[in-house]
Amino acid sequence: MSQVAAPVLPARYRVVERQEETQDTVTLCLRPVDQPIPAHQPGQFTMLYAPGIGEVPISISGTGPGLGLLQTVRAVGAVTRALCACAAGRVIGVRGPYGTGWDVASAAGDDLLIVAGGIGLAPLRGALLAALGHRGRYRRIVVLAGARSPEELVFARELDGWRRDGAELAVTVDQAAVGWTGNVGVVTQLIGRAGIDAARTTALICGPEVMMRITARELRALGIPAARIRVSLERNMRCGVAECGHCQLGPLLLCRDGPVISYDAALPLLAMREL
Amino acid sequence: MSGVTPADLAEHAFLRGMADGHLAVLARDCWVVPVRQGHQLFAEGDTARRFWLIRSGHVALDVHAPGDRQLIVETLGEGDLLGLSWLVPPYQWQFSATAVQDTMTFEFNVDAVLAACESDAGLGYQLLRRVMSAASSRLQATRIRMLDLYAASGTVHGGP
Question: Strand pairing partners for A143?
Answer without folding.
Answer: A114, A169
